[in-house]
User: Fold these one by one.
Assistant:
Number 1:
Amino acid sequence: MNQPQSWEARAETYSLYGFTDMPSVHQRGTVVVTHGEGPYIVDVHGRRYLDANSGLWNMVAGFDHRGLIEAAKAQYDRFPGYHAFFGRMSDQTVMLSEKLVEVSPFESGRVFYTNSGSEANDTMVKMLWFLHAAEGKPQKRKILTRWNAYHGVTAVSASMTGKPYNSVFGLPLPGFIHLTCPHYWRYGEEGETEEQFVARLARELEDTITREGADTIAGFFAEPVMGAGGVIPPAQGYFQAILPILRKHDIPMISDEVICGFGRTGSTWGCLTYDFMPDAIISSKNLTAGFFPMGAVILGPDLAKRVEAAVEAIEEFPHGFTASGHPVGCAIALKAIDVVMNEGLAENVRRLAPRFEAGLQRIADRPNIGEYRGIGFMWALEAVKDKPSKTPFDGNLSVSERIANTCTDLGLICRPLGQSIVLCPPFILTEAQMDEMFEKLEKALDKVF
Ligand code: PLP
């Protein structure tokens, strides 16, 4: 058998790519990465790329943060791995649960660990099913989410996700209901004000609950700002309009903070930025600054008490992953929380967010940019063929793929999402690096349009 020689050919021969536009790979090849330096990644040819994608929203402290590396090494030396079951758990797990409840918006709570954000959403759904069944409502099982939401890839979390591509798997599963995406610019109707748009979405929620029956709905999940849907902040007043409806019908509201948590929107939690109180929080990604695969379900006081009672009733919560509460992951998470909150990272996001917005505002003056949107260090530019009518581009290789590919050639990683280009750099980004990001992006836009 002829072995391929280059790194790129080896990657393309033996690896099956996930979430990758294959025409782009065939056209421009794979970037095979050896290491990272601050917010940059370096490929096998020594080329540096400013990663305005933070890996996948998660490498918020950059790729070589010494404190995080030392925390991992120290814990590997002490105790390299263990589970959190059968009446045993590591001291690091104990400390992280205390810390997560302390930094959560809740007065008290409980934490359950997973290996990823998908598993944390999946776990939360199972927890709700378990809880409602224990409370005598086994039929309370349907899950409400929104179109364009992203909650993961397991069969359950992919069913929660509101993206058409999941139909290739025959998903969503029955009982997963998607409501209108709260993106006023795209889904607001002709002549409708933002206030009227929000009122329409609240009515849709109320009508859906009436149609399905509140006693059949287990919970409502939402990202404070939709991430993989294309960075979509909620329409003004959206959460304030829907929360009272959920409360009235005893439907728990879960804030999926896998992207928004720990500083991305400028405060510790997206729910604080948008001023609402959920019943539970889903965390991952930034939780370990991307240095370990880990997720967590953080229950607020009411759900914690009810789940506790349900567990006591059958003497066990029969769920968990081999590496739930892994001590190395917990040690890294403890350090990551400290780094983001106390080493000026969250502060840097708040300080540079206006500069970020000003840069995007300038670019959005271009005739083929329909909208810029975002908050903190998560932003998107939406490309349009015709600005006044907001008509999207068409064609096989989407315009956002072409922009992102051109950026990669220029040494900038950004993410094409639908018709949008997403920028979500690490929190350590300096002003000069932000300028470099905009300079390269503008050069790419000049080439594509
Ligand atoms: N929830 C949100 C909001 C996400 O953005 C993601 C991943 O991007 C997930 C859940 C799934 O997390 P993971 O990829 O770790 O399974």
Number 2:
Amino acid sequence: ASFTPLTEKDCTSITPPYAVLQQRLKRISEILNHRPLTLAEKILYSHIHNPETCANEGIVRGHTYLQLSPERVAMQDASAQMALLQFMSADLPTCAVPTSIHCDHLIQAIDGAESDLERSIVSNKEVFDFLESAARKYGIEFWRPGSGIIHQIVLENYAAPGMLMLGTDSHTPNAGGLGMLAIGVGGADAVDAMTGTPWELKAPLITGVHLTGKLNGWTTTKDLILHLAGKLTVKGGTGRILEYFGPGVESESCTGLATIANMGAEVGATTSTFPYTDGMRAYLHATGRGPVARAADEAQASGFLRADAGAEYDEVIDVNLSELEPSINGPFTPDLATPLSHFAKVVQENGWKDEISAGLIGSCTNSSYEDMTRAVDIARQAKAAGLSTKIPFLCTPGSEQIRATMERDHLTDALEEVGAVVLANACGPCIGQWKRGTESTDENAILTSFNRNFRSRNDGNRNTMNFLASPTVVTAMAFSGKLSFDPQRDSLKTPDGQMFKFTPPKGEELPASGFTYGRLEYYPSPSPQPQPDTQITISPTSQRLQLLEPFKSPFDDNSRSELPRMTVLMRVRGKCTTDHISAAGPWLKYKGHLQNISENLLITAVNDEGGEVNVAQDYDQETGKSTTDTIPRIAQRFKARGEPWALVVDENYGEGSAREHAALQPRFYGCLMIVARSFARIHETNLKKQGILPLWFADKADYARVGAGDTIETVGLEALLKGESSARIGLKVTPREGEAFEILTNHTMSKDQIKWLQAGSALNKIKNDSKA
Ligand code: F3S
């Protein structure tokens, strides 16, 4: 099926409600005494659930917690599993906001698109069947395996200037290429939006990136973000939004801006955004979204889709695009940036073998029509000189639309003629789903146009050095096979003995004859109606999926006004991130099976009593004798005995990510309370959502006074439950040996969060409310 250009879609469900957003922003502007706002502030603040909640204290960037109402949710197949299982336990008939699921992460790359896809569909059948049936039941748009990578599909179909979207993947910010705020979150946050619960975010600081000049020659937007990654490092964007502005923004294509936004994740930024440009307007029209473009034009005319004159940034970085040169970043970290012209020297200085073992282009980061036409320009130049690629050269199209348009315009032929293998429209090698068939310990270097290059990410081999570069640089270097080759300067010998030098590649921003959809069966119908009678497919014997049982409220017995007496399972020493609490790696396959994944609970945490990792004691309360075992097995014993338990933990407990499994797993085993020297904010909220009470030692020295086998009773929780959110909670600790004593704690429970605790979890509360 070919549509030239794409027929205009029904855009009702994908056009932001600009009038409502601007109305809300007007109120916020009054509250903030009409101070000039950055674009990121305008988008965020126009999505504040109730502007009046800011009336007293205003909004201070880096300080105020905002309650936001995102307009859309997108989930990839790995993270969607637990998000949906949680959503199901709220017992709602449909999602509160339009939601989509994308089957992309579970597709392996072995020998080419068709066979890889077929094999992966068979091996992941139960997961895909589950996702599809849940999508049908709740009216979620389901993008089946082979349809493409979440971020490319979102950009082509859903993204719109001024929108606020959550996605359960760290490169969700890619959609910022269309002038919106798209934020990567954990499943529990996505469930907030899907259930219509306001989603909380600390108002980020805003870094302004002022772009002047124009990219030229070999340099692309990929090189801009690779350069910035070198400048900012992997932490430089933490707690910040990167907002680009200045004349240089206007000269870049929408998809080029998306590459920049995508890799803002590599500097730790909350997200990245750009003012509405002509390039965005053109892209919206080319992808069949004329109505969105026209609505955005109107919003822009009233000043919504750009920063106010005089808006202040927390920091400004100036970049003259005319002076940039291509960059190669890596290995093993995306912020190790080297200008291409210096790279040969770096290769020599490090003593790296001057060989590239594979070149990979495409992925969610760089598979736009512009990227592909530029790569094809290189391929055609090389072919005319009689050259073909010297190394395996793989191309991952980001979506069916890109794949089909590439095929129609003979771009695929041009790449295959020089030796490329085109993979399925899926993540494949970008997420470690690449079965290379090489030794898993061989030291080797690959060059990719992807976004991440942590050890083992692509082929599972710790010794594969992944260098990041633009698709054009990767393609040109594939014809040399050498790390030291600089296509800007060096020549290659052709089969007839001539010396050949590439000329800087040219690309086309958008296809002259429009995009083509490709296989229509990949496209879900827009805004599908929920089908409540759909049976959700989960086999009771499945090892990968398990229905979530609602957590029982400790207050179901109405006579109780304090938590039941709890035994301390362990005192955790030092750094304990969400990775320590719920390890990734081989456990990822159990993301949809709470019981199975819980077997990794705290397996890398250090026990402060003994200093060992994954060792804890189970004390018999009668005899005082202890049994030594792993932490998950002791937690299982507590669960089997129906014995509620608590954890004592150190500073910044739960730092790292929004991974909800780190809160679900202890709750699954019966944990009701965690007492910390301090908590990482996101994890603390996640604990509250799952019905665990997080308390802070008022005196941090008390941490050392409470140990495994001691019992704890709360004192004064009753007042909190009655709605006195300022009530202090004491803990009566009865040690295994010695006299009982009381200590004081602090808490951050809001009135709503107290209700989550009472109900047993936030989802129980939503479920109870929907039945009331
Ligand atoms: Fe993520 Fe790469 Fe897929 S960045 S979305 S794994 S293509």
Number 3:
Amino acid sequence: MFAKHHSLDPVEIAQVDKRHVLHPWSDLKTMHTEDPLVLAEAKGIHISDAEGNRYIDGIGGMWCVQVGYGREELIVTMAEQARRLCYYTPFGAMANVPAAQLAQALAERAPGDLNTVSFATSGSGAVDSAIRFAHFYFNCLDQPSKRQVIVRMDSYHGSTYLTASMNGKRRDWSQFNYARELVHFLPSVNAFRRPKGQSLEDFANEKVADLEAMILELGPENVACFVAEPIQASGGVIVPPEMYLPRCLEICRKYDVLYISDEVVTAFGRLGHIFASKDVFGITPDIITCAKGLTSGYIPMGATIYSDRLIKAISGENAVDHPYFTNGFTYSGHPVAAAVALKNLEILEGDGILEQVRDTGPYFQAELQKLRDLPIVGDVRGMGLMACVECVVRKIGAEPGEADMAVAARVDAHAQERGLILRPFESLCILSPPLIVTTKDIDRIVSILRDSLIATQNDLI
Ligand code: PLP
């Protein structure tokens, strides 16, 4: 038994994995037959499988390994903190040094008066806490009917009961139950799929009007919050129309609806700034949620950052007697994770990585745009170091055609043969490399992607 657990034989590990591991987003009919890629080690922007094949990690783990793999400073920090204080409960007003320092560091970098931080162990946990807070907030203000949550199609907010209910990727809706009575979906803001002949300006106006119309339809007295990723990541790197986010914020303010900016992907440098809400899109939301790049994926951690305005409103003179926020987790503010997050921030800022992304990001986008000459490419979009190549097999319509659905998986298979991992979803090839990629690495990524798209085109002829 012991020997089996320590086997390094990739074939055997794959068998054990197929037999016992229920991966996220598994098809139960094929989970026991399809071979996983068994990963063994990683360094910089490269990851190797257990058979020794080396790939460029085109997706930064999953939008998260900002500073690259194998950073000695992070590993040493982790070990030192574990040796000093590996864990203690955050309940009962127990503080630990790195968590307090990290909360302060996040407050200093977050926009406006977002100064109070609750910790979670994932992005889902951070978003879940934000929604729970929104409900708690209006209950404390004696407005319990303000409960409804507005999100958008193509969004992704997580995999807890509530956050999964907030996911607007229709193909993900499966045999689960969802909190449909609480969550309402606005139409997608994907300009590529807008009706033929509609100008971008009209499209943007329509999307902003959609939000106001939904608030009015539900009744502002029933709406708690609007939750939006600044750029919808997993849904296909959907960059919102110019001024869309500030105008949505204005509408939220008008109807006393909390604006929750889900920065699980966009924070910590992916767009060249620690937080993108203010620095890239000019908005100061009421709440920011983050995770992933917070620790560069070295250890799980999420955070929710709340505006002082909200905290004051429910803790001041007019507040209910005991605004008792019974939310949090055993591992909230875990000292080892917090120490890693602090060191990660130090690297992102101290090593000039944010500035580097402001140079490499536009280069990455410009090089990817050149793929538009390929017939299979329908759209290329993105910002900073997040991008999506949308493939189109049949003619472009309001929705992707059936034949488009599996095309990105083909591109990914061709890319893996050539040494690049990307993230396929239906017709979308998504890229979010570690932030340390150089222009030379980008050339290599784009060149492999081009060859893989051409190979896919040839398959389909
Ligand atoms: N929010 C956004 C925007 C995400 O992209 C994700 C994950 O991809 C989540 C929330 C959920 O994060 P986690 O998987 O860490 O729970």
